[in-house]
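The data are quoted verbatim for reference:
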Amino acid sequence: MTEQLDFSALWPHWPELLAGLWVTVQLTVMATVGGLATGIVGAAIRSGRTTWFSRIWGAYVEIIRNTPFVVQLFFIVFGLPNLGLKMTAGEAALLAMVVNLGAYSTEIIRAGIQVTPKGQWEAGRVLGLTRLQTFIRVVLPPALQRIYPALVSQCIIVMLGSSVVSQVSCEELTFAANLIQSRTFLSFEVYLVTTGIYLALSITLRQLMMAAGRKWLGVQA
C-alpha cells in the first residue's frame, strides 16, 4: 500500500514557514556578526603573551568546543535564570549561537595569525604603529584571507545548528515545521520542504559571504 504525497495541503501554512525562516535569518546574521567579532578579539588575546586572561579565554574555548550545543543552550535558558539573568527564548538562542561561534572562530582565526610572518609585526613597529594598530591593519587582513573559507563553513554550521533552538520554543524555521507537522500530520512533506529551505539558505549564505570576502579581503574564489 502506497501513500500519496500531498504538498498542496502545505500551501496555507507558508506564512508560518516564512515567519520561521525570517527568525532563522535574523538569528544567523546577528550571531555571525557577534560570533566573528568575539572570535577576532579572542584570537588577538590568545595570540599574544600568556596571561591569566588568555588562560580564561582558552578555558572558555575548550569548554564550548567539547560540549554539545544543545547543552550550552539549555544552560543559558535554564541555568542563567538561577543567577538572576532572565531573557526571552530568542535572546537566549542568539546568545548561545554567539558564544558557540565565538569559541570556534577564535581558534580558526588564531590559526591564520600563527602562520603570519613575524616580519609583519616588526614592519608595523618600524612604521610607528602600536601593537593594536599593527594587528588590525597589518596582521589581521591576510590572516582572515587565509582562513576565510573555514570561517564561512563554521558560520553555516552554526546557522544549521540554530534548528536546535526550537527546543526552547524559539519560533524559528524548525519550530514552524514541527508545529505544521503536528497540525497536518504530513511529516514527509513538511520536512522535505524544510530541508529544501535550509539547503537554499546554506547555499545563499555561502555565496554572500564568499562574495563579501572577495570584495573586502581579496579572497580567491
Helices lie at 14-47, 52-65, 69-79, 89-114, 118-126, 131-161, 173-184, 187-216. The chain has a mean pLDDT of 93. Residues 116 and 143 are 7 Å apart (CA to CA). DSSP finds eight helices and no strands in the chain.
